[in-house]
Amino acid sequence: MIPLQTPSQTVGPFFKPALIRTGQESLITPRSRGERITIEGRVLDGDSTPVSDAMIELWQANSDGRYHHPEDMEEKLLDPDFHGFGRAATDEQGCFRFFTIKPGAVAGSGIDLQAPHVNLSIFARGLLKQLITRIYFPDDPMNATDAVLNAVAPERRATLVARFERPGLLHFDIVLQGEHETVFFDI
Amino acid sequence: MKTPAGYRRPAPGVHPPYNFPSYTSTQKRAPRQAPLRLEHTLSEITGPRFSPDTMAPGDDDLTHFDGGEALGERIVVTGRVLDEDGRAIPHTMIEIWQANAAGRYAHAEDRHEAPLDPHFAGVGRAITDDSGAYRFMTIKPGAYPWRNHHNAWRPNHIHFSLFGPSLATRLITQMYFPGDPLLALDPVFNSVPDPSARERLIATFDIEVTIPEYALGYRFDFVLRGRNASPTLN
Known about the structure:
The complex is a heterodimer of chains A (187) and B (234). By secondary structure, chain A is mainly β. Chain A has helices at residues 16-19, 147-151; strands spanning 36-44, 54-59, 85-89, 95-101, 106-107, 113-114, 117-124, 131-136, 163-166, 169-171, 174-175, 185-186. Chain A is 5% helix and 30% strand. Chain A is globular and about 40 Å long. The model of chain B has no long low-confidence stretch (mean pLDDT 95). In chain B, a hairpin with a 2-residue loop joins strand 2 (64-65) and strand 3 (68-69). At the A-B interface, helix 1, strand 5, strand 7, strand 8 and strand 12 of A face strand 1, helix 1, strand 5, strand 11 and helix 3 of B.
């Protein structure tokens, strides 16, 4: 018998005791290599109402652009103090926050490098499967040639780029629906 | 550097759409724009892995908490995590959460007028073994009302979160119980378009898994996305 895929169902509103633990929003230790950054933002619904029961998972490469995963066989340094996974729940105001480092550029398809980015998966009541998006960095010259950014309609590209609040602090809102809807990916 | 093999796209009808109006919460949260399809790169074929060292003894047994035994019908839930080619997915983390026997979550936001059980937290974790197998000991969760529509009740269910080897295989789902009359009325269960895919969310009662004089046994396998054939190097 051919095994057939298990369908997705919503995470619902009651996941926090099972999935959220203190400290998961920080991906770094004092020994992690790379430029420290804080990423914060809000999750908003189609009425611009804060979504206070979402979970965001962040996955990223280390400062050299290598993922902590056996299938990333690029000749780049691994960092024993950086695994690249974080989780955060949104609070009453729909806010989330991660403490991490800026990733390096990772390999794309063919010979292209991808601009530095972090991958986000968003889970919430009302989402029957996760939403996938990416955060790009506002000052990175590689954005201009990134294949994914260039596949997005120019008028929506800005939804994938964080903005600097001040040095080391980036802001990135996730708009689930509406005029400024974030670009989501089918992966 | 060769492009790594991506994961196969899900068959139509397996996963729910984002917008499913009878599940009211989708109405303001489902994106209006279609998601942009991405070819898989290292960003999608990699993902977090969790060491068995992060598990504590008893993480897979929800029937004892805070010095006492949970009320309700004890059950064993066991099965394997496979990919679409039937390959076992070993050493992957599974997290579960559920309501107690009375249909109440140990969660501040659950306002259902049903008793909390001081000896049931309703959360568990496990890591699959070399053959992709997992096993939880828990109690059968109760049904509960949820105000999605008039007289709306969620069928008995356990929430499951799985990672698999990559971002592309990440899955959060719910496991239901056979013969539940609420399934036919539940918008979340019925959001899965293909009826045969929907049926795959229902566990199977198994007398072989049942522990005599102690707990009923249910079997539930997970199937995550399979891999495309590796591209050749020529």
